[in-house]
Amino acid sequence: MTCVTAPVVMQGLAASRQPAIRHERGQRQVFCGLTGIVWLHRKMQDAFFLVVGSRTCAHLLQSAAGVMIFAEPRFGTAIIDERDLAGLADANDELDRAVGDLLARRPDVRLLFLVGSCPSEVIKLDLSRAAARLSATFAPDVRVLHYSGSGIETTFTDGEDACLASLVPGLPAEPLTAAPSLLIVGALPDVVEDQFCRLFAAMGIGPVGFLPPRQSRQLPAVGAQTRFLLAQPFLDATARALEGRGARWLAAPFPFGAEGTTAWLRAAADAWCVDPGRFRQATQASEERARHALARHRAQLAGKRVFFFPDSQLEVPLARFLWRELGVDLIEVGTPYLHRRRHAAEIALLPDDVPIWEGQHLERQLDRCRAAQPDLVVCGLGLANPLEAEGMTTKWSIELVFTPIHGYEQAGDLAALFARPLLRKQRLEV
Amino acid sequence: MQLSLWTYEGPPHIGAMRVATAMEHVHYVLHAPQGDTYADLLFTMIERRQKRPPVTYTTFEARDLGSDTAELFQGAVREAFDRFRPQAMLVGSSCTASLLQDDPGGLARALGLPIPVIPLDLPAYQRKENWGAAETFYRLVRTFAAGTAGRDGQPKEPAAAVRPRCNLLGATALGFRHRDDVEEVAKLLARIGVEVNVIAPLGATPADLARLGAADFNVVLYPEIGATAAQWLKREFGQPLVSAAPLGVGATRDFVNEIARLTGIDPEPALSDQASRLPWYSRSVDSTYLTGKRVFIFGDATHAVAAARVAARELGFEVVGLGSYSREFAREVRDAARQYDIEALITDNYLEVEAAIAALQPELVLGTQMERHIAKRLGIPCAVISAPTHVQDYPARYSPQMGFEGANVLFDSWVHPLMMGLEEHLLTMFREDFEFRDGIAPSHLGTPAKPVDVAAAVPASIASAPPAPGPAASWDLEAERELRKIPFFVRGKARRNTESFARVRGVTVITVETLYDAKAHFSR
Ligand code: SF4
Ligand code: SF4
Predict the structure, then answer these.
(1) Ligand 1 site: residues with CB under 6 angstroms?
(2) Does pLDDT of B445 surpass 60?
(3) Structure pTM?
């Protein structure tokens, strides 16, 4: 494995493309970064997420996680009250006490995240110092990290980025003699991770690690021999932290749809100098299966006019998938933020006149949406039913972060998520 | 700082939203960060409302702090007024904005809007949802009813020919069965000749609030939300208030009799024997097995206290636990508990409630959505009697809790879970979760809970499905492992589909490839 080369450069292509990205400011209708806890806690089963916040933060988590409450959850909120607001020294003592109580009742917890919120930031409660202090108290049984999921700093999926970035400084350094290794960054369902592992194994690429890992003690090593792929477009801070530790990003489109998945895998294959024949052999059957699955949904989706409200930052890659592989017409692609560099390969695949809007002014966007009367609106839960009641057809975007949609085997499922509301509309006679 | 895992009530501004959303032509501008917009989905998803709540959020960001959040707020108020043209505007802060001290009331007033602007000062670090709703409703009522004609602070003698009139107060958006309770109580009142003057906040406009004084008395359906306003109306207009919630047969009779006394009308038309089926169903011999069933009750104060009465006196249960998260009404709950020789549990910490249920081992739990989950985990039948609730607690059918029809609903919804023993969705849905496996006690309980005997509870007809015809393909190890990663609720289907796919193609050993080929084949 001596032939790992520099990452594939798609920037050259991207540089020539300048889609007019429009900006807007006003009311945003997006979750804050705390929401990521809902899927992160299921992924890292020995971690606990303690939000230091208000009753609103607790209520948000409960409402976003709302549908399935299993046991005592692996997340909670230390609710700041009036006494804490009176003096910060007390707030720190109170936090230590809350953490002590929590860890006493959950001896299975190995990693504790203190998650900052708007109130904790506005009152300048220093969670990095709290994490250091508590780490010292509870080492070696429990590590304590911190990140911010506050709504004044982060939107929705940024919370995962902040969480993963907080893990990076604690990743072990790869040994000096390390062979090149591949790191997949972004929380994926276990079944999807395993599918990717099989594909990489068939190409002879490895070892392959994942961030976040399934158990907090299985942290992947990182260093100059590490090449990483982003599984999600919203992980810029994590990527920068990894780059800071010498790892190199393999620029690629994101693994949505048959085409996106192939391009994403190819970025790794090129870095490992996998010969094209072997790459084809490893991916062909799965890719064909994905294309076959997509073909079924094409009839339903081709020519349909789709409008995205900003939500998860997955909008641009998903728009690319819908446009290129299913033939939809993109009316508006709203996204809360667009990390230009991480999206360069995506934008290169989109038409020049793709109407990307960054930021949000909710009411004006609703005006545009009503005026355009799209066939399908991709939007958050707060808007879906009201728009349906106005006669539109909607897909709730939150499902796109909660369901497995990455990779070949899920390409058909991903298309189905968009096709189902349209199909349903056709069926209903009431 | 209190450690909280699940909360019974949201912050007070959620209560304000429940009032604003219930009403017409009222708009609420909330100074809040973007994440607080989650609140919309409570109304649009859980209650399936067809309209967005009438709320504008300022969604300030870190970069706005210290510079121009006040200006941002004023801009949002102006824009909201121009766009929605409400007849009244509520303004206030969520927990984060209240730390900024921007004074939404002053800022909004400075704009000189041609409509009443009502500042809501809801202490977010101290109070909760129901208090917020009560305060908001009270502020609205004061704003629009103060100084209106009619009462002069004296009770009005109903003229013989005029039907007595009352207001129904307290129903909001996102309330537990408020929609149907209001309808049922209005029907009940119509039967004895009482007219409903105004229903509020649910469905009321600001102009309706200005007519509140024209009623002879007030019915407070949900004291947690309506009592503050009703007490003010009593002071302002001398309107007596009826706050005995008509939950259950006995309480409904009391309710009707109290109104009859108040208005001098004949209660009999509403009290005939056929009014509710509950009394007969409860006497029916098959109900003898309900005798002495040990029941644990928890909810808001009004529903919990009323449920205890129904459970003990109308169904013959034994009340072994009674509690509430409504601290403002702790006294009422304590008094009620004393009747059953037990001590009330007043807490908003669901872990304490769970510990109490685990210790008491009741045969039925009547509670909120939280208790439903606790009961499921402990394998105890459960029915929901109070907010907070979930989407399934907003049924399509007419399903009040109050009045005589409400009593019928109570009988059905409390008795059915007992007959089924265990909710089957508990069995099928939770079996596979690693925290809910047979024999594994919940990690946080001091004493190990009794493991749920899943096999014993599955009806024989389901457990022994007929085998599929044709030679069955076998699964190789890796494929079997892969199958186990598929979410449990579709796994059975995936297995069946893959096997029939394999059979048709004459595949004898199912590999991971077969699994995904089958998945691709069936995916639609
Ligand atoms: S299990 Fe039942 S009660 Fe619990 S969240 Fe799901 S639907 Fe609601
Ligand atoms: S936006 Fe801020 S205050 Fe609101 S829930 Fe998120 S972190 Fe908490």
Answers:
(1) A 67-69; B 369, 372-373, 390, 392
(2) no
(3) 0.87
